[in-house]
Predict the 3D structure of the following.
Amino acid sequence: MLSDLSVPGRPGGRPAGPLPDRPRVLRSRRVVLPDGERAAAVHVADGRITAITAPADVPAGVEITDLGEFALLPGVVDSHVHVNEPGRTEWEGFATATRAAAAGGVTTIIDMPLNAIPPTTSLAALEAKRAVAAGQIAVDVGFWGGIIGADARGLDDLAALHDAGVFGFKAFLAPSGVEEFPHVSLDVLAAASRHTARMGALTVVHAESPAVLEAAPPVLGRVFASWLASRPPAAEQEAVAGLVALSAATGARLHVLHLSAVEALDDVVAARDEGLPFSAETCPHYLTFTAEEVPDGATVFKCAPPIRGRSNLDRLWDALGEGLFAGVVSDHSPSTPEVKQIDTGDFAAAWGGIASVQIGLPAVWTQARARGYSLADVVGWMCAGPAELAGLRGKGRLEVGADADLVVFDPDASFLVRPAMLRHRHPLTPYAGRSLDGVVLATYLRGVRADGDRPPRGRLLERR
Ligand SMILES: [Zn+2]
């Protein structure tokens, strides 16, 4: 059944009346706490969670918002978002990206160091990004720095960015798609990683082997199968194997971004078994779509690494269920319809990136519930996991002292994804027209309602 997004009151233990902008106590039969889901009351003051009590344990006279069977979750932490401002603001900007985030239950994003111009590879560039973001962000925003070299100047830049509070550093092993953010060899990454290891910083990597990609067959216009064949699983497998060796050699904390090919998982498992500081993430689109269903010319599905076959999807879910992934994050990477080649359907020319920051939570929940997973599992993958990866304290968990970043979620309602409801700059997404389970009814940032057109109250975050 399709839910009415504007009226939260429905029969069956649902609250009557609108949800408040500044709740004092939120009570639900389904509060998703770090140790699982149960009935509880979450008390909020001054933007923080001050107590979590039994439902009836609320002082007399304190206003209670009773959510009934609507679930109360921590805000989603999306550590993989491309905002593109300044420089490619026509693709996506801070105002639109964070509005979309808030609408989708995301209360913290960490912005990737590309595709803005300048890329976040120097202190001056980070300051430029912070200056343009300030005052227009509806959720909290942190930043990754970028690794594009390991000469003396490059290493100085990494140190300056680290001191300024970036959450870690991103590198590409294969071409990034934009010329101002060149990829690096494993040797250069090793030199940079020795440096970041000394700082205790996390390095996150786009892991596809350029040698494997160069040897793969070319992309043939509108043919999706040719895009898939041009990014074979071996490219991910070889790159991940190289990164595991690099982590062993340097002691650097390495994290594989947007893992798609299950063939690369064996090396992730081996790294974990060796006790290396090594992790990986995957994304909602790899857990939702299959190559078999992507029509030719549908460049809205283009991303790298690509969406793979049905059996790959099932095995990714198995790995997620086994705890092999540190998180599930959107890799929200929009562009204009022209750059995305919507009209031509040319997979070779189209920008590779999927816009989904607003859709990730229901997309993952839709698949998760069908496979027998719980809301607590989803919160672990999308809230606690990414917060822990980035070292974000006070985020991603409902616990006393944490920021009151809260999501009121109707897990039993479903909705049709319509472009008109999408708040990011260009309403292009492969989820359009799909029915998803789970409706975000309200998003609170530090105790205050943040979704819709409310004044932007997001803060710029620094690693502490
Ligand atoms: Zn990305």
